[in-house]
């Protein structure tokens, strides 16, 4: 698959990641490093997500994706 280079300042901006597995974990790590406010939507989470949640690094909603989950998001990642 061709890559799409994307240069966006996400510091302090809301980013939604839909998914709670290994791929989502990599995406969230990158978003956190960029200074984004991250909200994860997934029925379940990996241990790394659990740790980030306990550390207050992200928001979490434990349910399948709903259209309203992305309201106000600067970026949405399906993972």
Task: Outline the fold blueprint.
Layout: E1 14-18, H1 22-33, E2 37-41, H2 47-54, E3 58-61, E4 75-78
Parallel strand pairs: 1-2, 1-4, 2-3
3D architecture notes:
The protein contains two helices and four strands; from the N terminus they run βαβαββ. The protein is of the alpha/beta class. It has a single domain, classed as 3-Layer(aba) Sandwich (Rossmann fold), CATH 3.40.50.720. Helix 2 links the parallel strand 2 and strand 3. The radius of gyration is 12 Å and the shape is globular. The protein starts with 13 loop residues before the first strand and ends with a strand.
Keywords:
79 residues; alpha/beta; Rossmann fold; 4-stranded parallel beta sheet
Q: State the order of secondary-structure elements, H for helix, E for strand.
A: EHEHEE
Q: What is the strand tally? A: 4
pLDDT averaged over residues: 94
> What value does the Rg take, in angstroms?
12 Å
**Beta-strand content:** 15-25%
